[in-house]
Protein backbone atom coordinates (compact mmCIF):
# COMPACT_ATOMS: atom_id res chain seq x y z
CA UNK A 1 0.00 0.00 0.00
CA UNK A 2 1.45 3.36 -1.07
CA UNK A 3 1.73 6.17 1.49
CA UNK A 4 -0.89 8.89 1.15
CA UNK A 5 -0.32 12.21 -0.53
CA UNK A 6 -1.27 15.30 1.45
CA UNK A 7 -3.14 18.42 0.49
CA UNK A 8 -4.58 21.60 1.96
CA UNK A 9 -8.08 22.90 1.25
CA UNK A 10 -8.30 26.61 2.02
CA UNK A 11 -11.76 27.97 2.69
CA UNK A 12 -11.57 31.55 1.33
CA UNK A 13 -13.98 32.98 3.90
CA UNK A 14 -13.65 35.45 6.77
CA UNK A 15 -10.02 36.14 5.89
CA UNK A 16 -7.81 38.46 3.86
CA UNK A 17 -6.01 37.64 0.65
CA UNK A 18 -2.72 37.83 2.56
CA UNK A 19 -4.06 35.22 5.02
CA UNK A 20 -4.70 32.84 2.12
CA UNK A 21 -1.30 33.48 0.58
CA UNK A 22 0.40 32.60 3.86
CA UNK A 23 -1.21 29.14 3.84
CA UNK A 24 -0.63 28.61 0.11
CA UNK A 25 3.05 29.52 0.29
CA UNK A 26 3.68 27.32 3.33
CA UNK A 27 2.00 24.35 1.67
CA UNK A 28 3.76 24.95 -1.64
CA UNK A 29 7.22 24.82 -0.12
CA UNK A 30 6.58 22.04 2.41
CA UNK A 31 5.89 18.92 0.37
CA UNK A 32 2.12 19.10 -0.02
CA UNK A 33 0.80 17.71 -3.28
CA UNK A 34 -2.38 19.77 -3.55
CA UNK A 35 -3.97 23.09 -2.53
CA UNK A 36 -7.61 23.85 -3.28
CA UNK A 37 -10.42 26.36 -2.78
CA UNK A 38 -14.20 26.03 -2.62
CA UNK A 39 -17.11 27.63 -4.46
CA UNK A 40 -19.37 29.68 -2.22
CA UNK A 41 -20.79 33.20 -2.13
CA UNK A 42 -21.41 33.14 1.62
CA UNK A 43 -19.33 31.53 4.37
CA UNK A 44 -19.92 27.79 4.12
CA UNK A 45 -21.87 26.90 7.23
CA UNK A 46 -24.42 24.12 7.54
CA UNK A 47 -26.54 26.33 9.81
CA UNK A 48 -27.84 29.43 7.94
CA UNK A 49 -27.58 31.66 11.00
CA UNK A 50 -23.81 31.00 11.04
CA UNK A 51 -23.35 32.18 7.43
CA UNK A 52 -22.21 35.69 8.24
CA UNK A 53 -19.00 37.24 6.99
CA UNK A 54 -16.94 37.52 3.82
CA UNK A 55 -16.10 35.01 1.09
CA UNK A 56 -13.92 35.41 -2.00
CA UNK A 57 -15.33 34.31 -5.37
CA UNK A 58 -14.04 30.92 -6.46
CA UNK A 59 -12.80 31.27 -10.06
CA UNK A 60 -10.85 34.43 -9.36
CA UNK A 61 -9.32 33.16 -6.10
CA UNK A 62 -8.36 29.86 -7.79
CA UNK A 63 -6.59 31.88 -10.49
CA UNK A 64 -4.72 33.74 -7.76
CA UNK A 65 -3.80 30.41 -6.15
CA UNK A 66 -2.42 29.25 -9.50
CA UNK A 67 -0.28 32.38 -9.80
CA UNK A 68 0.99 32.29 -6.21
CA UNK A 69 2.23 28.67 -6.22
CA UNK A 70 4.79 26.69 -8.19
CA UNK A 71 4.63 23.04 -7.06
CA UNK A 72 1.20 21.97 -5.80
CA UNK A 73 -1.70 20.77 -7.89
CA UNK A 74 -4.25 23.61 -8.00
CA UNK A 75 -7.70 22.27 -7.21
CA UNK A 76 -11.33 23.11 -6.50
CA UNK A 77 -13.58 21.18 -4.11
CA UNK A 78 -16.01 21.74 -5.63
CA UNK A 79 -17.55 24.09 -8.18
CA UNK A 80 -21.34 24.10 -7.98
CA UNK A 81 -22.57 23.29 -11.47
CA UNK A 82 -25.69 25.43 -11.12
CA UNK A 83 -23.74 28.63 -10.43
CA UNK A 84 -22.23 28.95 -13.94
CA UNK A 85 -22.97 27.52 -17.35
CA UNK A 86 -20.53 24.61 -17.77
CA UNK A 87 -19.12 26.05 -21.00
CA UNK A 88 -18.27 29.28 -19.19
CA UNK A 89 -16.62 27.32 -16.37
CA UNK A 90 -14.61 25.24 -18.86
CA UNK A 91 -13.15 28.39 -20.41
CA UNK A 92 -12.24 29.77 -16.99
CA UNK A 93 -10.49 26.53 -16.03
CA UNK A 94 -8.38 26.58 -19.20
CA UNK A 95 -7.14 29.98 -18.10
CA UNK A 96 -6.30 28.60 -14.64
CA UNK A 97 -4.42 25.72 -16.27
CA UNK A 98 -2.28 28.13 -18.28
CA UNK A 99 -1.64 30.42 -15.30
CA UNK A 100 -0.57 27.40 -13.21
CA UNK A 101 1.64 25.89 -15.90
CA UNK A 102 -0.58 22.82 -16.26
CA UNK A 103 -1.44 22.13 -12.60
CA UNK A 104 -5.22 22.67 -12.69
CA UNK A 105 -7.58 20.05 -11.20
CA UNK A 106 -11.31 20.64 -11.66
CA UNK A 107 -13.72 19.48 -8.95
CA UNK A 108 -17.47 19.58 -9.62
CA UNK A 109 -20.57 19.06 -7.51
CA UNK A 110 -24.33 19.42 -7.42
CA UNK A 111 -24.47 22.18 -4.79
CA UNK A 112 -26.17 22.20 -1.40
CA UNK A 113 -26.22 25.71 0.14
CA UNK A 114 -29.82 26.76 -0.39
CA UNK A 115 -29.24 30.09 1.33
CA UNK A 116 -26.90 31.06 -1.52
CA UNK A 117 -29.24 29.85 -4.26
CA UNK A 118 -32.15 31.75 -2.75
CA UNK A 119 -30.23 34.97 -2.10
CA UNK A 120 -28.81 35.07 -5.63
CA UNK A 121 -32.00 34.06 -7.42
CA UNK A 122 -30.62 30.74 -8.67
CA UNK A 123 -33.29 28.00 -8.73
CA UNK A 124 -32.60 25.42 -6.01
CA UNK A 125 -33.91 22.40 -7.86
CA UNK A 126 -34.72 19.04 -6.25
CA UNK A 127 -31.72 16.78 -5.79
CA UNK A 128 -32.52 14.65 -8.85
CA UNK A 129 -32.50 17.73 -11.06
CA UNK A 130 -29.29 19.07 -9.56
CA UNK A 131 -27.67 15.70 -10.22
CA UNK A 132 -29.00 15.90 -13.79
CA UNK A 133 -27.36 19.33 -14.10
CA UNK A 134 -24.11 17.92 -12.80
CA UNK A 135 -24.12 14.96 -15.18
CA UNK A 136 -24.89 17.13 -18.20
CA UNK A 137 -22.30 19.72 -17.20
CA UNK A 138 -19.52 17.19 -16.67
CA UNK A 139 -19.99 15.88 -20.21
CA UNK A 140 -19.94 19.38 -21.71
CA UNK A 141 -16.82 20.38 -19.79
CA UNK A 142 -14.98 17.19 -20.69
CA UNK A 143 -15.83 17.71 -24.35
CA UNK A 144 -14.71 21.34 -24.40
CA UNK A 145 -11.40 20.57 -22.66
CA UNK A 146 -10.49 17.66 -24.94
CA UNK A 147 -12.35 17.96 -28.27
CA UNK A 148 -12.05 20.47 -31.08
CA UNK A 149 -15.82 20.97 -31.25
CA UNK A 150 -18.53 19.93 -28.78
CA UNK A 151 -22.27 19.59 -29.31
CA UNK A 152 -24.51 18.52 -26.45
CA UNK A 153 -28.24 18.86 -26.06
CA UNK A 154 -29.53 18.21 -22.57
CA UNK A 155 -32.53 19.30 -20.53
CA UNK A 156 -30.55 21.89 -18.57
CA UNK A 157 -27.61 22.78 -20.83
CA UNK A 158 -27.02 22.89 -24.56
CA UNK A 159 -23.97 23.71 -26.66
CA UNK A 160 -23.77 23.58 -30.46
CA UNK A 161 -20.46 23.34 -32.31
CA UNK A 162 -18.88 24.92 -29.24
CA UNK A 163 -15.13 25.56 -29.12
CA UNK A 164 -12.85 26.22 -26.17
CA UNK A 165 -9.52 27.68 -27.26
CA UNK A 166 -6.78 27.61 -26.28
CA UNK A 167 -6.87 24.07 -24.98
CA UNK A 168 -5.41 23.31 -21.54
CA UNK A 169 -1.68 22.72 -21.28
CA UNK A 170 -2.54 19.28 -19.88
CA UNK A 171 -3.67 16.83 -22.55
CA UNK A 172 -6.69 15.69 -20.55
CA UNK A 173 -7.19 17.51 -17.23
CA UNK A 174 -8.53 15.36 -14.42
CA UNK A 175 -12.14 15.97 -13.46
CA UNK A 176 -13.25 15.35 -9.88
CA UNK A 177 -16.74 14.82 -8.51
CA UNK A 178 -17.48 15.50 -4.86
CA UNK A 179 -20.12 13.81 -2.72
CA UNK A 180 -21.10 10.39 -1.45
CA UNK A 181 -24.62 9.50 -2.61
CA UNK A 182 -24.48 5.77 -3.30
CA UNK A 183 -27.24 5.31 -5.86
CA UNK A 184 -26.31 7.94 -8.41
CA UNK A 185 -23.45 10.25 -7.51
CA UNK A 186 -20.84 7.55 -6.92
CA UNK A 187 -21.88 5.90 -10.16
CA UNK A 188 -21.32 9.26 -11.86
CA UNK A 189 -17.83 9.34 -10.35
CA UNK A 190 -17.14 5.88 -11.75
CA UNK A 191 -18.39 6.88 -15.19
CA UNK A 192 -16.85 10.32 -15.68
CA UNK A 193 -14.30 11.30 -13.03
CA UNK A 194 -10.61 10.78 -12.40
CA UNK A 195 -10.89 11.81 -8.75
CA UNK A 196 -13.41 11.51 -5.91
CA UNK A 197 -13.61 13.58 -2.76
CA UNK A 198 -15.87 13.57 0.25
CA UNK A 199 -15.52 15.62 3.44
CA UNK A 200 -15.79 15.12 7.19
CA UNK A 201 -16.74 11.48 7.64
CA UNK A 202 -15.10 8.82 9.78
CA UNK A 203 -12.91 6.04 8.35
CA UNK A 204 -15.61 3.37 8.71
CA UNK A 205 -18.11 5.33 6.61
CA UNK A 206 -15.37 6.29 4.15
CA UNK A 207 -14.54 2.59 3.69
CA UNK A 208 -18.21 1.86 2.95
CA UNK A 209 -18.49 4.63 0.36
CA UNK A 210 -15.16 3.63 -1.17
CA UNK A 211 -16.40 0.07 -1.65
CA UNK A 212 -19.58 1.31 -3.31
CA UNK A 213 -17.49 3.39 -5.72
CA UNK A 214 -15.39 0.35 -6.59
CA UNK A 215 -18.52 -1.66 -7.33
CA UNK A 216 -19.81 1.08 -9.62
CA UNK A 217 -16.45 1.13 -11.42
CA UNK A 218 -16.90 -2.58 -12.07
CA UNK A 219 -20.43 -1.99 -13.41
CA UNK A 220 -19.15 0.79 -15.69
CA UNK A 221 -16.27 -1.41 -16.90
CA UNK A 222 -13.78 1.00 -15.39
CA UNK A 223 -10.53 0.11 -13.65
CA UNK A 224 -11.16 1.14 -9.99
CA UNK A 225 -7.57 2.36 -9.60
CA UNK A 226 -8.23 4.98 -12.29
CA UNK A 227 -10.24 7.01 -9.73
CA UNK A 228 -8.20 8.71 -7.00
CA UNK A 229 -9.93 8.38 -3.60
CA UNK A 230 -9.56 11.41 -1.29
CA UNK A 231 -11.05 12.87 1.86
CA UNK A 232 -11.17 16.33 3.42
CA UNK A 233 -10.51 16.37 7.17
CA UNK A 234 -10.39 19.16 9.72
CA UNK A 235 -7.23 19.64 11.77
CA UNK A 236 -6.72 20.47 15.45
CA UNK A 237 -3.21 19.35 16.32
CA UNK A 238 -1.05 20.26 19.30
CA UNK A 239 2.40 19.18 20.40
CA UNK A 240 0.89 17.75 23.60
CA UNK A 241 -2.51 16.94 25.11
CA UNK A 242 -3.03 20.43 26.53
CA UNK A 243 -2.26 22.14 23.21
CA UNK A 244 -4.49 19.69 21.37
CA UNK A 245 -7.41 20.43 23.68
CA UNK A 246 -6.98 24.17 23.11
CA UNK A 247 -6.87 23.65 19.35
CA UNK A 248 -10.09 21.69 19.50
CA UNK A 249 -11.79 24.61 21.21
CA UNK A 250 -10.56 26.85 18.39
CA UNK A 251 -12.43 24.70 15.87
CA UNK A 252 -15.70 26.13 17.23
CA UNK A 253 -14.70 29.52 15.84
CA UNK A 254 -14.02 27.99 12.42
CA UNK A 255 -16.96 25.60 12.04
CA UNK A 256 -19.59 27.10 14.31
CA UNK A 257 -22.53 25.02 15.49
CA UNK A 258 -21.83 22.41 12.77
CA UNK A 259 -18.73 21.17 14.59
CA UNK A 260 -20.49 18.35 16.43
CA UNK A 261 -21.90 17.01 13.16
CA UNK A 262 -18.53 17.25 11.39
CA UNK A 263 -16.28 16.07 14.24
CA UNK A 264 -16.07 12.42 13.03
CA UNK A 265 -14.09 13.82 10.09
CA UNK A 266 -11.55 15.76 12.14
CA UNK A 267 -7.91 15.03 12.91
CA UNK A 268 -7.76 16.05 16.57
CA UNK A 269 -4.98 15.38 19.04
CA UNK A 270 -1.25 15.03 19.36
CA UNK A 271 0.94 14.12 16.37
CA UNK A 272 0.87 10.46 17.37
CA UNK A 273 -2.92 10.44 17.59
CA UNK A 274 -3.24 12.21 14.24
CA UNK A 275 -0.84 9.73 12.62
CA UNK A 276 -2.91 6.82 13.91
CA UNK A 277 -6.15 8.41 12.68
CA UNK A 278 -4.70 8.98 9.21
CA UNK A 279 -3.61 5.35 9.20
CA UNK A 280 -7.23 4.32 9.70
CA UNK A 281 -8.26 6.34 6.62
CA UNK A 282 -5.44 4.85 4.56
CA UNK A 283 -6.61 1.37 5.61
CA UNK A 284 -10.11 2.41 4.47
CA UNK A 285 -8.80 3.26 1.00
CA UNK A 286 -7.96 6.97 1.16
CA UNK A 287 -5.10 7.79 -1.20
CA UNK A 288 -4.94 11.52 -0.44
CA UNK A 289 -5.55 13.23 2.90
CA UNK A 290 -6.59 16.85 2.41
CA UNK A 291 -6.60 19.19 5.41
CA UNK A 292 -9.71 21.39 5.30
CA UNK A 293 -8.66 24.69 6.88
CA UNK A 294 -10.73 27.76 7.67
CA UNK A 295 -9.79 31.13 9.09
CA UNK A 296 -8.36 32.00 11.45
CA UNK A 297 -5.74 29.72 9.88
CA UNK A 298 -3.63 27.82 12.39
CA UNK A 299 -0.22 28.11 10.74
CA UNK A 300 1.48 26.81 13.90
CA UNK A 301 -0.64 23.66 13.82
CA UNK A 302 0.02 23.24 10.11
CA UNK A 303 3.75 23.46 10.80
CA UNK A 304 3.43 20.77 13.49
CA UNK A 305 1.69 18.59 10.91
CA UNK A 306 4.51 19.23 8.43
CA UNK A 307 7.27 18.55 10.95
CA UNK A 308 5.83 15.60 12.89
CA UNK A 309 3.07 13.92 10.89
CA UNK A 310 4.07 14.02 7.22
CA UNK A 311 7.50 12.37 7.79
CA UNK A 312 5.73 9.34 9.30
CA UNK A 313 4.31 8.62 5.84
CA UNK A 314 7.38 9.52 3.80
Short structural summary:
The protein is α/β, with parallel strands linked by helices and 314 residues long. The protein is built from 11 helices and 12 strands. The chain has one domain: TIM Barrel (Alpha-Beta Barrel).
Describe this structure in words.
The protein is α/β, with parallel strands linked by helices and 314 residues long. The protein has one domain: Alpha-Beta Barrel (TIM Barrel), CATH 3.20.20.30. 42% of the residues lie in helices and 18% in strands. Strands 1, 2, 3, 4, 5, 8, 9, 10, 11 and 12 form a ten-stranded parallel β-sheet that branches. A hairpin with a 4-residue loop joins strand 6 and strand 7. The radius of gyration is 19 Å and the shape is globular. The chain starts with a strand and ends in a 5-residue tail after the last helix.
Draw up the topology in text.
Elements: E1 5-10, H1 17-28, E2 34-37, H2 58-68, E3 73-76, E4 79-80, H3 86-100, E5 106-109, H4 114-120, H5 127-146, E6 150-153, E7 158-162, E8 175-178, H6 185-192, E9 195-199, H7 203-219, E10 228-237, H8 241-255, H9 259-262, E11 266-269, H10 271-283, E12 288-293, H11 299-309
Parallel strand pairs: 1-2, 1-12, 2-3, 4-5, 5-8, 8-9, 9-10, 10-11, 10-12
Antiparallel strand pairs: 6-7
